[in-house]
Amino acid sequence: MKTLLFQLRKGDLLFRVFLVLLVASVLTTAWRVLPLLLGTGDATVGLVDAGIWQLAFFSLICWFCLLMLSLGLFTLLRKQLALPSVHFMVSQFKNLQSWQQLSFYYACFALLLLAGVGCLVAVF
Questions:
Q1: DSSP 3-state of 110
Q2: CB 66 within 8 A of CB 123
Q3: What gap in Å lies between CA 100 and CA 98, rounded to an integer?
Q4: CB under 8 Å to 54, separation ≥6 — which residues?
Q5: Helix (H) or strand (E) holding 27
Q6: Cα dihedral sign for 84, 85, 88, 93?
Q7: Contacts (Cβ under 8 Å, ≥6 apart) of 30
Q8: Which of 111, 108, 124, 120 is nearest to 62 (CA)?
Q9: With 70 as the cut, is the pLDDT of residue 66 above it?
Q10: In which band, very low, low, confident or very high, does the pLDDT at 4 lie, cut at 50, 70 and 90?
């Protein structure tokens, strides 16, 4: 009897779906276990509210969902608008001068940080 073997390669759509489901299941498991871990210690440790950690974790989950949604929209729009491939865009990025690359990295970091702070503000 032959068994069914899945070979997941890094570029496959099945690999991406599997990776997203894996991260979502880890985050969901952590969401359910976090109150139990916080409740095992002494309740009078000095925490103002033990639910704050769960809200912060919920904002992290929202931020991750926002990143996945934006990646999916980018992929969909890139295909619909017939834009060049990501490999071509990266090769054009490597042709930039170092100060331009650095400023682009800082701009991406600032936007990711702003999105994370926005998720924190929306949850709290």
A1: helix
A2: no
A3: 5
A4: 31, 34, 35, 38
A5: helix 13-40
A6: positive
A7: 57
A8: 120
A9: yes
A10: low
Alpha-helix runs per DSSP H in 41-123: 51-80, 86-94, 98-123
Question: Is residue 87 within 8 Å of residue 27, measured between CB atoms?
Answer: no
Backbone angles phi, psi at 96, to 5 degrees: -70, 160
Could you tell me if 50 and 35 are in contact, meaning their C-beta atoms sit under 8 angstroms apart?
Answer: yes
Of 78, 73, 64, 76, the C-alpha closest to 112 is 64
Of residues 1 and 28, more confidently modeled: 28
- Asked if residue 117 lies in contact with residue 124, where contact means CB atoms within 8 angstroms, the answer is no
Structure tokens at 67: 């990143």
| Token reading at 96 | 């930039």
